[in-house]
């Protein structure tokens, strides 16, 4: 079972992906991972790194309506 802290870190990454440009998102992810290293066990941290790297590879989808 995944811990509450692990799920909170995933939610932070997901929120950052939704609300940030790609470059800012990557910086935020690195900061989240840096802090998560100290609070998650090795298995959870490796899973979070994998999740973050998958999200980093995705391109941001920008709605044309949001730009107007």
Question: How would you summarize what this structure contains?
Answer:
The protein contains four helices and no strands. By secondary structure, it is mostly helical.
Keywords:
68 residues, 75% helix, mainly alpha, elongated, single chain
List the helices and strands and how they pair.
Elements: H1 4-19, H2 22-36, H3 42-57, H4 64-67
Helix pairs in contact: 1-2, 1-3, 2-3
Can you give a write-up of this model?
By secondary structure, this protein is mainly alpha-helical. The protein has one domain. Helix content is 75%, strand content 0%.
Mean pLDDT: 85
> How is the main sheet built?
none
Order of helices and strands: HHHH
Summed up, the domain count is 1
Please count the helical segments. 4
Q: Which spans have pLDDT < 50 for at least 5 consecutive residues?
A: none
Structural class per helix/strand content? mainly alpha
Give the N-terminus to C-terminus distance in angstroms: 44 Å
Q: What's the number of extended β-strand segments?
A: 0
Strand content: under 5%
Rg from Cα: 13 Å
Helix content estimate: over 70%
